[in-house]
C-alpha cells in the first residue's frame, strides 16, 4: 500500500478543508494517508514521519503567487528525498494564482523529489480590507457551493496520485508572468498592511485568543491591550477569529457590513485544530 502524507498550513481554514477532503479521497483509493497541520509538528516529528513515505503532499493558501513564509520555511528545512520519493503541491486561492503551486514545487525538485502534480483550488475569499477590496467574504451557503465545485478536482488529484499520473499546472509563460509580477510585490504589501493592525479598545475583552492563535507569535499582551510585532505574514487568522471583531486593519474595518470577516469553511469550524496541543 502506498504511504502518503499531507503537510499543510492553513490561516483561516480553507486549506485545512481541502487537505481533509483529499485525505478522504486517498483513503477511498486504498491509500494509507495522513494529514498534518505543520504548526503541530517539530523537525524531529517530520524526520520520523517521512523516512518510509512514498509520496508527500504540501498544501497552502496563495499569497501573491507564492506560499506563506511559514510554509516556505517548512519546505526549506524539509529533508531531501530518499528512495525515489515523489511530491504534489496544492494551493487554495480566491482569485488568480498564476504559477504558485509549480513555483513552490520547484523547491522540492531541488531537494530530489519527483514533482508529479500541482493544482489550485478556488475557495472563499478571506481578504477584503479598505486598501485591497476583493469580493466580500461570505459565511453562508456560498461557502458550501465552492466546496462542492472543488470536490471533483480533489478527486481528480487523488486519482492522479493513486495512478502516479503527472498533472502539472502553472508551467507556462502566462502563468509565470502573472506569478512573477505578483511575487515581486507581495513582501511590500504584507509589510505595508501589517503596520495597520491595531486593537479597538472599545470592543476588546482581553480574552487572549489573538495572542494564542497567531502562528508566528506576533501578538503580545501589553498591559490591558495587545501589541503587534514585525513578524506578521498576513494570514488574517487573528482578524477573522476575534470574537468581538476588535482587531482592525485600518479604521475602515470597523464597518463589519462593508468589511465582513471570514469565519471558516464550516459552520462549527474550530481554529484550534490547526495548532499544536490546541494551544
Automatic annotation (TrEMBL):
Pfam families: Fer4, Flavodoxin_5. It comes from Clostridium mobile. Residues 4-151 form the Flavodoxin-like domain. Keywords: 4Fe-4S, Electron transport, Iron, Iron-sulfur, Metal-binding, Repeat, Transport. Residues 195-224 form the 4Fe-4S ferredoxin-type domain. PROSITE patterns: 4FE4S_FER_1, 4FE4S_FER_2, FLAVODOXIN, FLAVODOXIN_LIKE. Signal peptide: none annotated. This is EFR1 family ferrodoxin.
